[in-house]
């Protein structure tokens, strides 16, 4: 056996820095779970923003097949997959949609496939790892711009546009660890004169933002200006998988060339059926997104962290910045003792010195749950640590 001492040494070092991650089993019980120590905690750490993953959405006819048996291109694509793609394209008002095994596969694969040698990618400094990995896998040159800095993007385009065949501006819509939103109108304005294309990851916007619930692009009125939008089925939709909505020529190209779609097994039919039901509920139960939006506004107001942007205040991700890793871990434990799971997020997921509690809200949280969490946060003095 080779020696893996070097790995053990790194793990020991991370442990001493409060940065070691472990997989802890949790027994879900609706919007609560029982942790390994037997504590029943209200879950304020999930991305189940509409409560669709945990509230037992009735699925009309669950297929018997637990697996799709092959890549979508071989024999893994069923009429149900087709129906889900059409449902998503309709909600998103795009010509076409294509499904991926995960949001990670959709983001990384799309960027890696579309951005070619001779192209430039402009990528927000706080983009999700899946977009970052797409940039790394692509053969394009990548410039990382300061978070949300559209003026920086404009200055790079002015100076360097002529050097490249195509330019891609790649950004999260809602940023997953900060709960803030990309300046999409400004980025579109900057991109247009330089014939640059935006690729927006709507992972945390789908189902939550916009009149119809299609995401941040809808909420900001730029759906028809952002040609390529990526989403996940794993957050507000409450299932698993990813998708890209785009003109048909783009989705046809991805079907032919995108490695994370071609060389991975298609989504399980049962997951696809559950996703179709979840998308139907975006239409039939708009009250779910209205509720989670108003909970987000209320919590931000109560914790005095509202911003001047109304859309941002409706985002159900509320970061409580603590600073040091050990303090963030201690804060999470204080809240766990009070009956709440609010995960501590540490480097390398967030920059050093910005460890935080990531509080996420769901339409399934009762008023009483939210009020007692707010009381526990205020009582603990967590917000004065950083
Ligand atoms: N993009 C963002 C912004 C995310 O937060 C995530 C999941 N954490 C993904 C993409 C990947 O989605 P999935 O979990 O479906 O792979």
UniProtKB/TrEMBL annotation:
<protein>
    <recommendedName>
        <fullName>8-amino-7-oxononanoate synthase</fullName>
        <ecNumber>2.3.1.47</ecNumber>
    </recommendedName>
</protein>
<keyword id="KW-0808">Transferase</keyword>
<dbReference type="InterPro" id="IPR001917">
    <property type="entry name" value="Aminotrans_II_pyridoxalP_BS"/>
</dbReference>
<comment type="pathway">
    <text>Cofactor biosynthesis; biotin biosynthesis.</text>
</comment>
<feature type="domain" description="Aminotransferase class I/classII large">
    <location>
        <begin position="41"/>
        <end position="377"/>
    </location>
</feature>
<dbReference type="Pfam" id="PF00155">
    <property type="entry name" value="Aminotran_1_2"/>
</dbReference>
<dbReference type="InterPro" id="IPR050087">
    <property type="entry name" value="AON_synthase_class-II"/>
</dbReference>
<keyword id="KW-0663">Pyridoxal phosphate</keyword>
<dbReference type="InterPro" id="IPR004839">
    <property type="entry name" value="Aminotransferase_I/II_large"/>
</dbReference>
<comment type="similarity">
    <text>Belongs to the class-II pyridoxal-phosphate-dependent aminotransferase family. BioF subfamily.</text>
</comment>
<dbReference type="InterPro" id="IPR015422">
    <property type="entry name" value="PyrdxlP-dep_Trfase_small"/>
</dbReference>
<comment type="subunit">
    <text>Homodimer.</text>
</comment>
<dbReference type="InterPro" id="IPR015421">
    <property type="entry name" value="PyrdxlP-dep_Trfase_major"/>
</dbReference>
<keyword id="KW-0093">Biotin biosynthesis</keyword>
<dbReference type="InterPro" id="IPR015424">
    <property type="entry name" value="PyrdxlP-dep_Trfase"/>
</dbReference>
């Amino acid at each position: 056996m080779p020696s893996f001492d070097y790995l053990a040494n790194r793990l020991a070092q991370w442990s001493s820095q409060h940065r070691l991650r472990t997989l802890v089993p949790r027994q879900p019980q609706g919007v609560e779970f029982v942790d390994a120590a037997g504590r029943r905690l209200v879950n304020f750490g999930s991305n189940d923003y509409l409560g669709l993953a945990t509230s037992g959405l009735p699925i009309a006819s669950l297929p018997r097949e637990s697996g799709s048996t092959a890549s979508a291109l071989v024999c893994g694509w069923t009429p149900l997959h087709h129906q889900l793609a059409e449902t998503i394209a309709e909600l998103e008002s795009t010509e076409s949609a294509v499904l991926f095994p995960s949001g990670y596969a959709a983001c990384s694969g799309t960027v890696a496939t579309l951005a070619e040698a001779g192209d430039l990618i402009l990528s927000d400094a706080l983009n999700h790892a899946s977009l970052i990995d797409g940039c790394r896998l692509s053969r394009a040159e990548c410039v990382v711009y300061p978070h949300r800095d559209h003026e920086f993007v404009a200055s790079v385009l002015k100076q360097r546009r002529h050097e490249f065949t195509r330019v891609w501006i790649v950004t999260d819509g809602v940023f997953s660890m900060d709960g803030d939103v990309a300046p999409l109108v400004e980025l579109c304005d900057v991109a247009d004169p330089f014939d640059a294309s935006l690729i927006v990851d709507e992972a945390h916007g789908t189902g939550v933002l916009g009149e119809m619930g299609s995401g941040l692009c809808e909420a900001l009125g730029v759906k028809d200006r952002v040609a390529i939008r990526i989403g996940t089925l794993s957050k507000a939709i409450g299932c698993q998988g990813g998708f890209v909505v785009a003109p048909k020529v783009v989705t046809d190209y991805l079907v032919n060339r995108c490695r994370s779609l071609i060389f991975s097994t298609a989504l399980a039919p049962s997951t696809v059926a559950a996703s179709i039901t979840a998308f139907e509920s975006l239409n039939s139960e708009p009250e779910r997104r209205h509720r989670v939006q108003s909970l987000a506004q209320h919590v931000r107001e109560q914790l005095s962290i509202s911003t001047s942007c109304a859309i941002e205040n409706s985002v159900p991700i509320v970061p409580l910045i603590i600073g040091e890793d050990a303090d963030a871990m201690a804060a999470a434990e204080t809240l766990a003792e009070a009956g709440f799971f609010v995960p501590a997020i540490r480097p390398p997921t967030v920059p050093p010195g910005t460890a935080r509690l990531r509080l996420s809200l769901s339409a399934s949280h009762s008023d009483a749950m939210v009020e007692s969490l707010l009381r526990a946060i205020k009582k603990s003095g967590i917000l004065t640590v950083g």
